[in-house]
Amino acid sequence: MVAMRRYGYRPSTFPFRSIEKEPLLFSLGFGKMAEESESVRVGMAGGEPGIEALPEACIANAISLTSPRDACRSSAVSAAFRSAVASDTVWDRFLPSDLKSILALADHPVDFSSKRELFFRLCDRPIFFDSGKMTLSLDRSSGAKCYMLSARELVITWADTNVYWRWVPDPDSSYCSLEMSNSLDHACYLFGLSCQSGHEFHKARSMFSEVAELLDVCWLEIHGHFNSKMLSSKTKYAAHLIFKLSDSAVGLDYPPQEASVKLGTQSSTNLVCLQPNKNQDTDEEDTDEEATGHVVPQSRGDGWMEIELGELYNNGEDGDDNEVDISLLEVKGGHWKDGLIIEGIEIRPKI
């Protein structure tokens, strides 16, 4: 508001009007700055100055108070907005406040030339840490942190007893260990990634070098643990098991598995079914979920399935330092199970 008065603007006459459509692109705290429209008129009749009269730093600071999604949309408003959106002022606000310490723990250095480039790099390509057993990425629309705990990072009962479980490279992948530049770390896990040198890696179904395959157990127990400080504050999260089933998988349809997510006094529980009827299509699965109360898997675009285990809200108040416990259990039925292939557990914002 100070900057607006300095340049002769009054809140009631701020120079933005919609032409044809209903709003809304976003609000910046001092009136409607832009509206979702096929064309936006900048400036007003009578010779009053337009938005270009405001310094770029003022526009950038205002845009940084919105969201990554709205910032990208705002670049269509005017040339001044496009220039402001590209500034580090905007994207530094959208990046996690503790990103410097996170990058210091990364398995490989992360190269970037601007904060905007870094933001989208983290949205599109997770960084690996803890010797390749965990990943961090950012949610594109909000900038909230997302994590993936690999199967090796989980606590799986009997996982090191080779008659019950085995650790193998993803059976559907063509993963190979190659030495790459820092800017292309773990590129061989990604589908269709073209390298600067002209090489193209083959599709690999898992981003991790190995997965856990269930051979035969009657006691299924899986836990994941991490500190709530890792998460973005004031954000609702959901935890998803990322898995596949082999063609010969049995014993995972009944009884249903018990899933839970706990943080402090919060506790979210679900009854889930890892192996719903193979003859059901997606619509029937949704109907079955409504009828039984059991959560069923959903297909992902990367060749895996996911199932929601539970949710939590990270308040992120000062001094909060609690452990998040995620679990999946089936220990009561006594049924033998096999054919479950686990990539890990993903924790991401829940819209």
TrEMBL record:
Species the sequence originates in: Zingiber officinale
Lineage: Eukaryota, Viridiplantae, Streptophyta, Embryophyta, Tracheophyta
PANTHER family xref list: F-BOX DOMAIN-CONTAINING PROTEIN, F-BOX PROTEIN PP2-B12-RELATED
UniProt-recorded name of the protein: Uncharacterized protein
Pfam families with a match to the protein in the record: PP2 (PF14299)
Region: Disordered, residue numbers: 276-299
SUPFAM superfamilies, per database record: F-box domain
